[in-house]
Each structure stands twice: as structure tokens, then as C-alpha cells.
Amino acid sequence: MSLLFDQNLSPKLVQSLKDLFSGALHVRDLDLQRADDIEVWRNAADRGLTIVSKDSDFHQLSLYHGPPPKVIWIRRGNCSTSMIEDLLRENHEEIGRFLENPEAAFLSLG
Fold it and tell me: Total structural domains in the chain?
């Protein structure tokens, strides 16, 4: 599963979740850490990546444009990277179903 972690999430997630999401990248890996949301959006769409973010702007983009790319919206306030990792691990099967569904544009996890 090819995920693209947004700037508001730790790049450590790429390594800590590689057993479940081996194709995961962080925006830093693509030199997009200073890119605006539209540039990240287009890059993810071009590369077939699903954006994972705490930023509600990606949720709005998914409503407006539809997929690709798909968006996983992390709806948690201030929390640790390990809490985000746990959330993604706990929802691994749901994420898989979401990614396989061609009609689905976004998944909200909280």
C-alpha cells in the first residue's frame, strides 16, 4: 500500500510502519516538505499515492476533486507519533478495504 505522509506527520512513520505499508513515503522523501497542498495533491495523484494527513484541507480537496489521490484524514489533535502508528495499525484492514474501493475518496480515522 503506497501511502504519502504529509508534513504534519512524522517521517519516522515510514520506517515504523514498513511491515504493513512497504511503499510508504514522507513528503520529505519527495522534496515536498515546503510544497503547498495542491502540489502535494498533484504529486500524489501522479505517483498513485494515498495522502495521509491531519490537515483538513486534503479532506476538502478530496470532496471537491475526488480521487485520485485518495486521502486518509487523521482526526486527532496533538498526539504522539506512536499514537498515530497505533491508529494506523489498528485500522490496517479498514485502510486496505478503502484503498481497494474505486469509489472511495477519503477515509476519516480518529
Answer: 1
Comparing CA positions, the residue from 10, 42, 38, 35 lying closest to residue 24 is 10
State which residues form the domain around 30. 3-109
CA-nearest of 39, 55, 49 to 6 is 55
Overall pTM surpassing 0.90 (yes/no): yes
Distance CA 86, CA 74 (A): 12
Residue 104: other Cβ atoms inside 10 A = 15
Residue 78: strand, helix, or coil: coil
- Rounded CA separation 5/23 (Å): 11
Q: What is the pLDDT of residues 26-82, one digit of tens each?
A: 999 999 999 999 999 999 999 999 999 999 899 899 988 888 999 999 999 889 999
Cell numbers 511491515 label which residue?
19
Under a CB-based contact definition with an 8 Å cutoff, are residues 105 and 64 in contact? Answer: no
